[in-house]
Design a protein that fits this description.
By secondary structure, this protein is of the alpha/beta class. Helix content is 47%, strand content 17%. The chain has a domain at 113-321 and 378-385. Strand 7 (197-199) and strand 8 (204-208) form a beta hairpin. Residues 4-104 form the Saccharopine dehydrogenase NADP binding domain.
Length: 391
């Protein structure tokens, strides 16, 4: 276990040992370093194969950890959703990490594992089972129950208040914001926008999802990375990705749009943000264990093949736990285990990237997908509609 406060780590270790009734947990080594102390971070990272980072805002606390991971040859995964910071990480470290075979993985929690790995699963199915690429993929957020994380809110506020207006404009308008860094030319994909929409292939009305701006960039980055490996996995000709919240009708989708606008105004306007902070969890605060255990989330996944007579493939992903805390911690853990114990399996798949600042799909592929399923997450394809497929 690693952190900056040895006493707090010792307390958590003792509580865990008692909870799982395993004395061996009480002897897990404790390593300490402050994220602002680069040499100390380096000494900690030199002692491990993989570091899992959960301390955000990452734009504030993450630079030294990533830099030292590359310097020490230690694989890295985090749960950030701060895409401008991810962009800077790619610009600073991708070339060196790729040369050293070090894997730096961002966005390995609820943002953006369901979107990233769900899309990878649908594309893999279309390629392997149908012999076709995908022209359009959808991730549609379904019913769920989740707590509110003070750390996530602080990361969002930090992003809005510290990033340049030009950077935020680029982030909100360009689905290839990250993919371009890996050499992918811009294509026809566009952000979902704030208006409600009827999605014919998905057969549903939908409204905007506030984290689409993060998840869509990661999905396109995965496509860019996977099309540049020893055995390229091309998602499809002019591949596009849309993520929205599914609604029961036009009115429901409109209400989602209105709610998203209100949330954006509260986060974006300093006076409203100051008022809202009085009523929202502070950094370090989050949902109770009861809320975490009784939370759940689900995404409907849809892929339209790029054939002359397109087929529609349907799937889903989800979990019976709170997405932001319980599910996120398990997603990150399985990503770390894949990097640490599944190295030979990852190396045996020529479709995967072998080093650099990567995404979960580009680094973990089917190996990580199976590990997530084994941990209890649902990732499944449910059917094919159209030419040659079941109606």
């Amino acid at each position: 276990m690693a952190g900056r406060d040895a006493k707090k780590l010792e307390q958590v270790r003792s509580e865990l040992a008692a909870r799982v009734n395993n004395p061996a947990v009480a002897t897990v080594p404790i390593l300490t370093a402050d994220a602002n102390d680069a040499p100390a971070v380096g000494r900690v990272l030199a002692q491990t194969q993989v570091v899992l980072s959960t301390a955000g805002p990452f734009a504030r606390y993450g630079d030294n950890v990533v830099a030292q991971a590359v310097a020490q040859g230690t694989h890295y995964a985090d749960i950030t959703g701060e895409i401008p910071w991810v962009k800077r990480s790619v610009q600073k470290h991708h070339a060196a990490a790729k040369e050293k075979g070090v894997k730096i993985l961002h966005c390995c929690g609820y943002d953006s594992i369901p979107s990233d790995m769900g899309t990878f699963m649908m594309v893999e199915y279309c390629r392997d089972k149908l012999g076709s690429g995908v022209s359009q993929a959808y991730s549609l957020i379904g019913p769920g129950r989740a707590g509110v994380s003070g750390g996530t809110l602080e990361s969002g506020v930090n992003l809005i208040s510290t990033e340049a207006a030009s950077e935020l404009a680029a982030l909100n308008s360009n689905q290839y914001y990250l993919a371009e860094l890996y050499g992918m030319p811009p294509g026809p994909d566009r952000p979902a926008g704030l208006l409600p929409r009827w999605l014919p292939a998905a057969r549903t009305w939908a409204g905007p999802f506030i984290m689409e701006g993060c998840n869509a960039k990661i999905v396109q980055a995965s496509h860019a990375l996977l099309r540049d490996t020893a055995a390229p996995l091309e998602y499809g000709k002019d591949f596009k990705f849309t993520e929205m919240i599914a609604a029961s009708g036009a009115l429901g989708a409109s209400l989602v749009s209105a709610g998203t606008v209100v949330v954006g105004a509260v986060l974006g306007l300093a006076p409203l943000r100051a008022v809202a902070r009085r009523f929202l969890p502070a950094p370090g605060q989050g949902p109770s264990e009861d809320v975490q255990r009784n939370g759940f989330w689900s995404h409907d996944l849809v892929a339209v093949t790029d054939e002359a007579k397109p087929r529609v493939v349907r799937g889903k992903c989800g979990d019976r736990r709170d997405p932001g805390y319980w599910s996120t911690s398990r997603m990150l853990l399985e990503t770390g285990l894949a990097l640490s114990v599944d190295g030979p399996k990852l190396a045996a798949d020529p479709r995967l990237a072998t080093g650099g600042v990567l995404t979960a799909a580009a680094a973990g592929g089917h190996v990580l997908l199976e590990r997530l399923r084994g941990a209890g997450f649902t990732f499944e394809v449910s059917g094919v509609e159209g030419e040659g497929g079941a109606k």
